[in-house]
Amino acid sequence: MKMWLLRGTLVVAVLGLAGCGGGGGGGGSDISASYKGSTSQATVTTSNAKAVSVDAVQGVQNIATAGVLGKQVDNTSEATPQIQSIAKVLEESVVNIATKNVAKTVAVTVQDTIYGYSGSASFTINGNDSSGAFSGTITFSSYVESLSAPVISGAVTFSGAANTSTGTITSINMSLSNLRGVIGSQPYTLNGSIAISSGSSSKTLNISVVRTEDTNSRTYWAKDFSFVLTGNRMSVSGTYYDHVNGYVAVTTLTPLTVSTYSSTPTSGQLLFTGSNGSKARLTYTYTGYTLEIDASGNNTYVVVP
Question: Total structural domains in the chain?
Fold first, then answer.
């Protein structure tokens, strides 16, 4: 296996960020301290069903800006899963940093800086060719990738391992600590973690991230989310906290059909369970999704327009 260093621009894609994060903690501190919203279990109703179901999976809560952050959409296939999309960009950035340019047979530290449309993104990486282990940090300083991209400030710390025989990355852990982004007039801060592991037949993405909207201090927490992708079938589980409505438990009724963990599902069904048996059911098709709720917990569902 050869440890390589990126000298290009793929790192800069790291943040068109909209809410996301990895298996349990974040940023070297208790991620729960970043969440300031309701900690009660939500009562699922017609009025809040989309906020505690569609937004939980797609990460588009209160985001109306097009571009890298995505946009609020109706129940069509345009609604891409933003949480996973961000994780994918972060993953690709770290993979490229860890697998490009200079091979070493002993531990080595490499530093470099990338300049964008404005601002800079600097990284440091330590790689050991004999063990396959690596770690590092990407630090953004008022970084703007292109004219329409968000302004990014803050650090992403990462570590991981590679298969020394094949050179493939087998695991990545990333920590986001007060990572700030601004797009248009909407600033936000991210705290949490993302972990990705790959096996012979499946890939697992674990996320725990709190997104704080700086303009109103509202927070949204994707807690202990797990996306397990086997072939083109993906199961999802976790707990989603909405600032106003509280939390719901997310489970998979029928595995989602996807091309990657960041693509829009074309079939499958997820369940979002609130208090007193209230729940929302999200069913994906090729043309979009159908959202239904069982407000009374008697397994009688009605469609939410």
Answer: 1
